[in-house]
Amino acid sequence: MDLNNTKIKIGIIRGGEGDNYENSLREGSDLISFINSNLSDKYKIIDIFLDKENIPHINGLPISLDKITHKTDVVWNTHNNFSHILDNFSIKHISSSTFSNVMSHNRSILEEHMKSVGVKMPRHLVIPAYQRDFDGDMDKFSFKKAKEVFEKFGSPWLVHAFGKDMNTGIHIAKTFEQLVYAISDIAQSGKSILVEELIIGKVASVHTVPNFREAMYSFLKGNLTLLEKERLINYAKDLHTHINANHYLKSSFVINKRGAVYLVNVELKPNFKEYSDLHQSCEDRGVKTSSIFEHIIDQALK
C-alpha cells in the first residue's frame, strides 16, 4: 500500500503579490521544514508557489485554483490577502481573516477596542517612506521627523520599519540625536517608519487557540503574579474573539511599574520554530507544538 495515499495532503501557499512576498516565502518554507521534521508520517506537503501576479504554481508549472481542490485536503495560506479567493473556490484553508488582518494593521481601530476594555497601546507616529524628490535632503528630513516625534511623546523610542520586514533593524533611541539617526537609517531602506513609545515593565505574551482542550485555550509566557496572569489571559481571549482571529493569536503585553497594561503587538500566524515564544510556552505546559499544528489542521478540515 502506498503510504502517501493515506496521508492528509496539505497545500502550503506562499509568495504572492504585494509587500508580503518575501515574508510569505519564508513563512511557507518554515512550515514545510516543520512538517518534514515533526509530522511527515501524517501529512503530505503540496508546495504551492504564488508568483507576483498571484498565479499559483506546483512543481514549477502554473495551475488553476479549481484543480488545487483535487490535489489537497486543506491549504495553509501564508499570503495576507488570498483567503477570500480560497473561499470563492470552496477550498478548506487556514488563513487570517480579512477583518483580523485589517485590525492587526490598523492601530487606530485596535486602540479604540483596547481602550474600551481598559488596555492602553503605546503612543506612536507613522512616518511615510522617504522620497528624495518630495522630501529633499535626507538629513533635514530625518531631523524634521524626529522633531515631530519629540513633540508628540518623549523618550525612550522604539524605531523600526512599518510592517514585518526582517531586513531592517530595530532601534532603541534614548536621545534626540539617536532618534534622528534611527529615522535616517530606516529611511534609507525605502520603507515607512513606525516610531513607538517604548514601555518599560514586565513583558508577557499570551497565545490563544480556540477549541484546544477548552473553548479558548491559552498559553502565557512571563514572570507575573497570578492576578496579572488572569488579567492578561482575559484581555487576550477578548481580543481573539473581537478581531475574529480564527485559528490562533499571539498578544504581547507590557505591564508598567504603575500596573497599567499595554498591548504592544499582535500576531496572527503561529511560529513553530524551536526557539519561538510559542514553542517555549508549549513546553512550559507540557504540550507539543506539533499537537497545536494538528489541532489547527483538524479544525480546518471540519
UniProtKB/TrEMBL annotation:
It comes from Candidatus Nomurabacteria bacterium GW2011_GWA2_40_9. Gene3D superfamilies: 3.40.50.20, ATP-grasp fold, A domain, ATP-grasp fold, B domain. SUPFAM superfamilies: Glutathione synthetase ATP-binding domain-like. This is D-alanine-D-alanine ligase. Signal peptide: none annotated. InterPro entries: ATP_grasp_subdomain_1. GO terms for molecular function: ATP binding. It comes from the Bacteria.
